[in-house]
Amino acid sequence: MKHTATQTATKTLTDLYRALDHQHVVTVSFLKEEKDDAGKKTGRLVETVRSLELYEIRTTRDGRIVFEAMDRATGEPRTVRVDHVLSYTVHRMAYVLDRPAPTKYVRPTPAPVNDAQALFFYELARDQDDADYTPRTLIQTDAALAA
Questions:
Q1: Distance between terminal CA atoms of the chain?
Q2: In terms of CB atoms within 10 Å, which end of the chain has fewer, N or C?
Q3: 60 and 130 in contact (C-beta within 8 Å)?
Q4: Ranges of residues in the chain whose predicted pLDDT is under 50
Q5: Helix (H) or strand (E) holding 65
Q6: Amino acid 110: pLDDT
Q7: Are 31 and 5 in contact (CB under 8 A)?
C-alpha cells in the first residue's frame, strides 16, 4: 500500500498510468463527499475504499486531475479526484468489467458569418453543450487528425 502523503503527485500519477496501461486493478482509499437521505451533498468528506478498474485519467475544467474507473463492487463508473486519494495498492489482477462506450463526437453546424444576430444566437445555443462536454475518442482511421 502506498500512501500519497509520503510521495509526490507525479509518483502517484505514474503508478496510476502504469496500472491503466497494464490494465491492473487498483484498490484506492479516498475521500468522497457524504450525501444525506435525500441524495444531496452535505459537504463532509468520508473515507471510502474501492477496488477500481481505471479507464481514463484527465484534467477537469477547473484544473483538477481525476481518474474515471469501473467500481468492481457495483459495476458502475466512478470518478475520483487524485488529490482526494489517501492510499492505493496496484494489484496484478486483470480487468473483468466492460467500461461504458465513449460518446460519439458530433461536429457542430458552421457559424453564420454575415448576420451578427444569427451569430449571437448560434453562440448561445452552442454554450448549452459545454455542460455535458466529453472529449471525442481518436480513431486511427480518421485521416483528418493526421498532422
A1: 42
A2: C
A3: no
A4: 131, 147
A5: strand 65-71
A6: 74
A7: no
